[in-house]
């Protein structure tokens, strides 16, 4: 349950959904009643033990939580410094952290009597998680996906269809994730009565950033007791990859009030963070603006046009970042760095070879940063990195970059 103590960094957002100057609710009047009804229901559910009992039951029996906290001993030895632990969220059902949040939102939708779930998806991971939970509950599922992404992510499109979802290719704008999110919002206002919009990261208008964070916080809460059990104390550094920022917020949030814990978010540096803009580092290479109903750091050109961004990892190419990260960045509580495609690919291969774990390209970015900092840290220094997804989906991309031909 979220902490509402005063002077706590975990207390946000305020009543208007702001984290400092970030977040809020920049939506049309037609959307407002829907957002308020959702906020109302979430506030009620949050304090209702039966809601959390249902979550806990499904987290355990359907998702497979708690995910292990694993000491990566060969990686630690290889790096020769800090002791590295991996939080194994790639072992969740559907292979990533996304389902933690989807489960929460869909249980909420059922409490509200909604029968039709809509979602946006970029690489398809959130779409697959949503289609999965909808199948489990017999709910209608419509997933908006940029036409360009539908082509690039054919296996995930097929998965969603197998799971019974309708995938709608979005051709407006440039046909990518940003446009899919706009179309999903449009669908929501036209299908008010029966539809629930399930957002896949800590973005969107209030209460989404806080709600998604609360659902993903299961990651950090487990790390706290698992680390206590393994080492008898808190970790010294926690590290996670950032697309929109949900797996990172889930790991970070339970540690915000522990000043001894260093917090590092890793953005996708693509081909390098410079003015060619071939990256997705919203915090290290963007500036504040408004997108998808909230104020946050965004990739934009001089005229305020939102830029698409680029990363080897499709799951990281959202042009914004959750507003709470923007605030944590500005107050200095968390550090944000970027890692290039090339560095992520090296980390990917090292993890396969030393630990027998094929990581997704997204957490490979976090691992690449761990590889940079661990060697110079003392052996007692404890690092926890969130292994937020498995890499089966990425082997063809990796093969291509390594110049290897692999037929599906
Ligand atoms: C979707 C995804 C991400 C990026 O989303 P966040 O909201 O930043 O967590 C990162 N890793 C994996 C494995 C994903 O599927």
TrEMBL record:
Modified residues (N6-(pyridoxal phosphate)lysine): 98
Catalytic activity: (1S,2R)-1-C-(indol-3-yl)glycerol 3-phosphate + L-serine = D-glyceraldehyde 3-phosphate + L-tryptophan + H2O
Enzyme Commission code: 4.2.1.20
InterPro entries linked: Trp_synth_b_CS (IPR006653), Trp_synth_beta (IPR006654), Trp_synth_beta/beta-like (IPR023026), TrpB-like_PALP (IPR001926), TrpB-like_PALP_sf (IPR036052)
Keyword vocabulary terms for this entry: Amino-acid biosynthesis, Aromatic amino acid biosynthesis, Lyase, Pyridoxal phosphate, Tryptophan biosynthesis
Domain Tryptophan synthase beta chain-like PALP: 64-389
Top enzyme category: lyase
Metabolic or biological pathway, per its Swiss-Prot or TrEMBL entry: Amino-acid biosynthesis; L-tryptophan biosynthesis; L-tryptophan from chorismate: step 5/5
Keyword Endoplasmic reticulum: no
Domain of life: Bacteria
Known cofactor(s): pyridoxal 5'-phosphate
Function: The beta subunit is responsible for the synthesis of L-tryptophan from indole and L-serine.
PANTHER family given in the database record: TRYPTOPHAN SYNTHASE, TRYPTOPHAN SYNTHASE-RELATED
Complex and partners: Tetramer of two alpha and two beta chains.
NCBIfam families in UniProt: trpB
Similarity-based family: Belongs to the TrpB family.
Protein known as: Tryptophan synthase beta chain
